[in-house]
C-alpha cells in the first residue's frame, strides 16, 4: 500500500524524531478532516481522552496510541520511531575508567563496577533503570553477543538474583536497541524479549509503573518483529501488571486475546504448545484474582490438557518453560486466589521441588504453598514452606512485597513458632 506523502514530509519526520506521538496522531486526524469526537467514535473513546493523548509528551496508554495511529494512517515505521526512546551517548566526564578501551578490555574492572552497582540497593538500581528507560544509554562494547547475554540475564531471573539483573538491564536495553536498528525481525524480537524480562523482574520487586512501561515497549517491539511468541510473552507481562493494578477485567481480556492469537498459529510445535499452555495458566490465575471462579477452573483444566504433550523438563532456552508440574503449581495459585486454601493445598500436595528446573520455580512452589498454609491459619507449615523457598532462592522471599508481608506478620503474631525467627533474620539481613 502506498504511503501518503504527508508522512514523508518534513513536519511528520520532525514530530517522529522528537518523539511527539500525540502530535503525529493530531496531524493525521486533521489531515483526514476529522474532529476529536469523530475519531473518538471510530476507536471507541471520548474526545477528551483523545485530546489528552494528542497533547501529552509521554505515552500513557500504548493500546490507544496504536488504535488512533492506525485509524488516522500513521505508517508503522513512523510510529515506531516516535515511540522509541532517544539514544544518548555518555558524556566524557562521566567515564569511570581511564578510557573506553580500558572499560572494554578489563573484565575484572567491569565485574567490580557491576557488583558495586548491584550492591547499591534496590532504590539506586531502579533509578538507574529509570534513566535508561527515559533515554537509552550508549551501547556497551566487548560484552559478547546479545543472544548469549539475554540468556545469561534470564538465568539471573531464574536464580532469583534480582539485584544483579536490575544492575545489568540498562546495558542490555542499550545493546538491544543497537541490534534492533538492523530492522531484522529476530533482532527486534530479541529487544522485545529484553523488555519482557525487565517487566518480569520489575513486577517481581513491586515496581509496577516501570513494569507497565517496559511491558508496553515489549508489546511494541513484538508487534514490529511479527513474532507471535514474542507478542504472547509481552502480552502476558502486561496482563500481570494490570492484575497488580487491580485492573482484572482488562488483564483478562488481554490474556483471552493473547491465547486466541497463539492458538491461531496451529500449535504445530512444542514451543507454540508451551506458549498456549502458559497463556491458559496466566488467564486462569488472572480470572481467579478477578473472582471469575468458573472461568478460572475451566482454564486451568484446559491448561492441564494442553500441557500433556510437553516434556516434564522443558529444554533450555525455551521462552515459555511450562511443564505439567508447572500447570499444577498454577492450580495451587488459582485455588488460593479463589479463597479456597484447602483446595490449594490439595492441588500442591504431590508437587516436589525436583520437578522444577529453576530455583525461581522451586522457590515459587514454597511461597505458593506458604500462602495457602497462611490462609489456612497454619503458621508452622507457613514458616517451613517459606524457609524452603528461601533456601531455593532468597530473592523470591526477600524481594516480593506480598511474601515479605507474610514474613512480617508471622514475626509479629507467631514469634515463637519454629522457623519464624530464622526466617525473619534471613529476610532482614538480606535486605
**Shape, per Cα inertia axes:** globular
Classification by helices and strands:
mainly alpha
> What portion of residues is helical?
over 70%
Q: Beta-strand percentage?
A: under 5%
State the helix count.
24
Topology readout:
Layout: H1 10-17, H2 21-31, H3 36-43, H4 47-55, H5 62-72, H6 76-83, H7 100-105, H8 107-118, H9 122-134, H10 146-159, H11 162-180, H12 185-204, H13 208-225, H14 228-244, H15 248-263, H16 270-289, H17 293-307, H18 324-337, H19 341-348, H20 359-375, H21 379-392, H22 394-398, H23 401-413, H24 420-430
Helix pairs in contact: 1-6, 2-4, 2-5, 3-4, 3-5, 8-11, 9-11, 10-11, 10-12, 11-12, 12-13, 12-14, 13-14, 14-15, 14-16, 15-16, 16-17, 16-18, 17-18, 18-19, 18-20, 19-20, 20-21, 21-24, 23-24
Descriptive account of the structure:
With 431 residues, the chain is mainly alpha-helical. Helix content is 71%, strand content 0%. The chain is built from 24 helices and no strands. The model is unreliable at 87-120 (pLDDT under 50).
List keywords for this structure.
431 residues, mainly alpha, 71% helix, globular
What would a concise description of this structure say?
By secondary structure, this protein is mostly helical. Helix content is 71%, strand content 0%.
